[in-house]
Amino acid sequence: MLHLSKAENHDCLLTFLILTLIYYLPSLLFIQLQTSSLAPGLFLASLVVIALTFKVRYLKRINKKSFVYFCILSILLISTSIFLFYFTSSKKPLAAFVLITLAVSAFLFSQRIAEGSTAGILKGIYYFIVFTLVLGWLSYFNLSDFGSYATRYKPVAPFSEESHYALCIGFLAGAYSVVANFRKIVFITFNIIAQAILFPNLTLLVFVTLIIVILFARLNPKYFIATSTIIILALSNLLSFVITNNEYFASRLNFDESDNLTTLVWLQGWDLAKINFINTNGLGLGFQMLGSENTSLSTYSYLTEKIAGQYKNLEDGGFLAAKIIAELGIAGLLIVGFYIIYLIGFIRTLNNNKLPKLFNPALKNEIHNLKKLLCQGLLFFFVVEFFLRGYGYFSPSLYMVLTGIFLLTSTKSKHEAH
Known about the structure:
Elements: H1 6-32, H2 39-53, H3 56-59, H4 64-88, H5 96-115, H6 118-140, H7 162-177, H8 182-198, H9 202-219, H10 224-244, H11 247-252, H12 261-279, H13 299-308, H14 320-328, H15 330-349, H16 367-381, H17 383-387, H18 396-409
Helix pairs in contact: 1-2, 1-6, 2-5, 5-18, 6-7, 6-8, 7-8, 7-9, 7-16, 8-9, 9-10, 12-13, 12-14, 14-15, 16-18
């Protein structure tokens, strides 16, 4: 941080601290207090972030139309949650209050990013990524097997398991790859590739593939779409070689075997979404009600129960899209549709010169664009948690996505400090 000003150093440290709170604290409480989900820890982390970032002037930046929409959605969510609690006696829908708190916290964080220095914020993200990579390597050498973590299967302290670690490091490294300079992103990418193979971990491998796509787009954005066929073929052949020569990857991507839990859980997610959407006439089961006694189970659910001795991933659906369609019905389907439209739009962004060139990343006059691209990267790399592997609404990465959305839609972000 020697090359940063005092203000930039402050932004760097604050960004690092907030990321630490959002990603580490929920997992620590999940392990140490044996909570049922990351929600309590994420709620506490969000309150601390509110205390760290709250400024009255941020409230004046709220777009009136967006505020009205937020209030309407909050009232609907709280009303239906109380209704579900009253008629089902389940406390899970009351987590709506937690989700609203996360949204408020994410908004304040987005405004802090908007007025902060880009150099300091990006440096803070980079340091957090590097520190988290170190934690990953410590786990590889079995240095995470201490205290409560010793009872967990393949923990990566402070994360309870490798998949949670992968969803953190892969997501943030991917978003950072959209704006990072060549030396830093190559260093990060090689570390993630090594961990994906050595751990081994399929989620990390998926993130690596997406990061390589981004790097290729930044090398030659103008012709990305035209030449994307080449990169897809090359990556497909490389991944095919890695997968077929590794028993772990081969087993998880084998859709022919009916006894593979990873495959079954993913297929179960789509089936649960379809069955419960149809059985509720498109209304959905209700917020946080997937896995309740009203859930219509899939044939894959019974297969996983037969193999594992218990139902797997019923409450979170295995990935977020399945959960929101099953619980929110038509509203959930619309959310999925809007997200797919965004992904298509982002792919178009990869095919123009808006991305900073990999070998010429210095855009001193385009500081706001870097922040905007970073936020777009957050939304793009959330695709893994949204469609492949996730753990519900109370996800640190979803918090970061909300932060990105608020920053992208903020009408006052153009007044950010350079």
